[in-house]
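Chain X:
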Amino acid sequence: MLHASGTSENVYVQDEETDTDESRTQEKRSVVVVSDSSGERTLVQQVVSLQISGVIVVCSGASSSVVKERVSNAVQAVLDLPTNRICIVPAA
C-alpha cells in the first residue's frame, strides 16, 4: 500500500505579452496551442507528479530480519524513501 500526497498536475507553456504606457503596465498570458495531424492541443511544459510519503509492504518471510532488510533496501532504492517511511509486516 502506498500513501501519496497531492495529485499530478500539468504545467502548460504560456505566451506572455507586456504592454507598458506612461502610467501602467499590463501583462497578458495565454496558453500555447499547437496543431498537428490529430488536431489542436495545449503544449505541456512539465508534468508534476504526486509525492509518495509512505509505504506498507506485506510479504511472507517478513518475520526474518534478513528479508525485511532486503525488502526495505529495495523500496528505498526504487521510491527514494527514508526507512522511517517504510513499514514491512509479515503476511498472515
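Chain Y:
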Amino acid sequence: MSNIPKCPNCEKQMVIVWYHEPNEIIEEFINEKKCFYRGLDIKNEDRESPNRIKYHCYNCNRSYSSDLKKHVVEIDSMGFLKKAQKELDNIVNELADRVINDIEESTKEELKSKPEYSHFGFGLYIRNKFIYGNDKIKYRLEADHLSHLIYDKILEKILN
C-alpha cells in the first residue's frame, strides 16, 4: 500500500477504488475498508486519464483522481439507509407502545384472538390517532403502510 497516496485533505491513508463486479475477496476488502466500491454504472473518465477517480479516503469520504487534482465527495447511501431504518424501527416501536397503553384490555384480547390485520378498523385508528400530525416521522412514509408496521409490532408485543 506504500504506492497509494495519503489523502490531500486529511493526510490519512487512502485505498484503491473498485469499479467492477466484486467477487467474494473484493467484497471482504470493501467490508474491511481495504478498497472502495464505486459501482458499475458510475460514468467515469477513460482508465488512463489522470481525471479518473482512483483513490478513496474513508476518513473524509472523498475520492480522488490519479493525479489528486480532482475529487468528489461520495454519498454514503448505505449509512443513510441504516440510519433511516433504525429511526423507523424506533418510531414503530414507540408508537406500538403508545397504542398498547391507549387501548383497553378487551381490545388486546380481541387482537390476540383475531390477529389478522384490519385496515378499515384498527389500522385506521392507528393511522388517524398516532401517525397523522406526528412530528417525529421525518421520512415520507405512506401512512397506511406505517400503520400496518405498527400493527405487526403491537401483535409481536402482546402475543409474547
